[in-house]
Automatic annotation (TrEMBL):
Belongs to the ABC transporter superfamily. Macrolide exporter (TC 3.A.1.122) family. It comes from the Bacteria. It holds the Pfam family ABC_tran. The keyword Membrane applies. Residues 20-249 form the ABC transporter domain. Keywords: ATP-binding, Cell inner membrane, Cell membrane, Membrane, Nucleotide-binding, Transport. The keyword Nucleotide-binding applies. GO terms for molecular function: ATP binding; ATP hydrolysis activity; transmembrane transporter activity. Coiled coil: none annotated. GO terms for cellular component: membrane protein complex. PROSITE patterns: ABC_TRANSPORTER_1, ABC_TRANSPORTER_2. This is Putative ABC transporter ATP-binding protein.
């Protein structure tokens, strides 16, 4: 596989390329006689450096899309590009390398290793990344300098999610894919987590895709995509964005 160049929103040789493009992206799950079309010929473009919010009812295909963009799942048909690389042509090892080098994931539940401190959880990633930031810098970026040596059980839910974000960004990924990152948090804590994601997007230029059931969160996005029954049914650009602290739910 050709090297996939890192670039920031601010510039660089591939700055004008979209981060992702899909054409006719389709995913069908077949479980015995049951056939579910999770994604139904989706065409979309996600611009580099943007923060995109994905909305849609439960079962509309959001997680399936995120998993395919992140190289965790395969399309049934159609094409997906990350910058100049067609992900849908990559074999298993190349897809693993893509994921390792370019993608950070944040999920609703934090998946931290309970026996490791915040710093050690982040180091699990920085130890194997190509050009990581120090674990301490990653934790500082999410406002947790004072919690480096705490274990997950000694942290609040919001703090654990911020450790998970630090772990995801420490390898300086080109894209950060977040599936319901505030789903398990109260609104005040959720806002803090969104502020961290917003800051990472602005300061590091990380292309960010965020799934949420909370329609208010769309106000902080550059771009909002709405899904229904596996189809992209609406796309909006926010001319004026709200900062997370202005969002209430
Ligand atoms: N591994 C699987 N096997 C079979 N069907 C699946 C599988 N994963 C997802 N589906 C089905 O595909 C459809 C889309 O699911 P997906 O998880 O992408 O939706 P979603 O919009 O993310 O939903 P939610 O908001 O509830 O997380 C659903 O009908 C779901 O039941």
């Amino acid at each position: 596989m050709a090297m996939i160049e890192e670039t920031s929103a601010a510039g660089g040789p591939t700055a004008m390329l979209p981060a992702f493009r899909t054409v006719g992206l389709t995913k069908v799950y077949e479980t015995g006689p049951v056939r579910v079309v999770a994604l139904d010929s989706v065409d979309l473009t996600l611009q580099a450096g943007e923060l995109t919010v994905l909305l849609g009812a439960s079962g509309s295909g959001k997680s399936t899309l995120l998993n395919i963009l992140g190289g965790l799942d395969h399309a049934t048909s159609g094409q997906v590009w990350f910058r100049e690389t067609e992900l849908t042509r990559l074999g298993g090892r190349a897809l693993t390398r893509y994921r390792r080098d370019h993608v950070g994931f944040v999920f609703q539940f934090y998946n931290l290793v309970p026996s490791l401190t915040s710093r050690e959880n982040v180091r699990l990633v920085t130890d194997i990344a190509v050009d990581p930031m120090p674990a301490e810098e990653a934790l500082d970026r999410v406002g947790l300098s004072h919690r480096m040596d705490h274990f997950p059980a000694q942290l609040s839910g919001g703090e654990q999610q911020r450790v998970a974000i630090a772990r995801a960004i420490a390898k300086r990924p080109g894209v950060l894919l977040c599936d319901e990152p505030t789903g398990a948090l109260d609104s005040r804590t959720g806002v803090q987590v969104l502020e961290v994601l917003d800051r990472v997007n602005a300061e590091l230029g990380t292309t960010t895709v965020l799934i949420t059931h909370n329609a208010m969160i769309r106000m902080m996005a550059h771009r909002v995509l709405r899904f229904a029954d596996g189809q992209l049914v609406q796309e909006e650009l926010n001319e004026t964005r709200l900062s997370p602290s202005e969002i209430h739910w």
